[in-house]
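Lab notebook page, bench 4
Experiment: in silico fold of construct C2
Operator: M.H.
Input chain length: 439 residues
Purpose: comparison with the prior construct
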Amino acid sequence: MLYITNGYLIDPKSGMEGYYDILIKENKILSIVEKGMPLADVLKQKGLEQESLQLGGTRMQQIDAIGKTIVPGLVDVHVHFRDPGFTHKEDIETGAAAAAKGGFTTVVLMANTKPAVDTVETLNYVLEKGKKTGIHIHTCANVTMGLQGKNLVEMEALSEAGAVGFTDDGIPLMDEELLREALRRAAKLGKPISLHEENPTWITNNGVNAGAAAKYYGIGGSPREAEISMVERDIQIALTQEADMSIQHISTKEAVELVRQAKKQSSHIFAEATPHHFTLTEEAVIEHGTLAKMNPPLREEADRMAIIMGLQDGTIDMIATDHAPHSVEEKAKPITEAPSGIIGLETSLSLGIRELVEPGYLTMKQLVERMSLAPAKLYHIDAGYLAENGPADLVIFDEKAQWIAGDYASKASNTPFTGEKMPGVIAYTICDGKIVYQA
């Protein structure tokens, strides 16, 4: 059993907020009581008087969370753990360790591995390996076989085997009829489809905005129209279907507005934003080079602010890191050759506090909702809330304390945030009632 005292609890589902003590038994929250109630009384309420004698012993552990905030374990529905096939970048074990260090108890893996997650065999490999990590590892399956955009996977079999959604993340679905059929089948399965929205016909060089950054490097770059055109097309298709469709890592103000208007017509349209897109602009690519190269690229200040406003008014439902590890050698290549993407699990909460809560764009409760409850809801995962008899997944952190980004649990270190001072020091991450990370 685990007894957490003196912390400031925030639950985005019930709206409960205040000083509470939490009693955990096995993988469930047994009791949430107002701060200060004697443990003996709490145990008596639950018929566990004998446990009171074990405080500090092998059967009962106490955490004093004074000065700290307690929220549901964070949920990231867009991560790349590169396993199978690219484990020199990351693997399921190191990715899970990075997640736990960042306060995440649940993650959803993307399916662009090698082999791709387009068969039950590969899906089972990922899920079985994930069960050994200490956190909840879910995965999407691909939409199309081999990420080729030609033939749909056996969606029904993959769903039955445990896929929580479908995506060809990294590659857009260019065939309109294929997307319609995928949405029809996803609707029957009750699983979302998440889309990477970049039309390659617009792009000369990916990962760099076709603006000041592209001009600095003397390349064509990736224009905003690549995203806008795909979002506009796919929303129109989705409006005729009943499946949940999520726009991944949104990057342009125009796309945010398209989603805003679409939500007035359908409850099946969703969008996610990354911490790097609400924090940085293309100037970071000029400053940091390939460490700030990602798909879709960092854009302009007006786009960054549109994403923040979208998170504020609920147009953008969730924050997802798009944790994308690469080796030092890969990122050392020239700007047009280096792969796109940055790691994000260990800096996500801190960037949310620094860029959204401290300036007053979101309350802490709203930030937590967009980083836990909202993504869990889209993927139908029992997570993102704190309640008696609910999952014992939570994170305890000091939102005022500061740390210097670096010393990552991830195999990779490809991020422009290394060396920056960050608010929000995570003290404990608890998953299934067990401490999976402790500062």
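Observations: The chain is about 30% helix and 20% strand. The mean pLDDT is 96.
Next step: discuss at group meeting.
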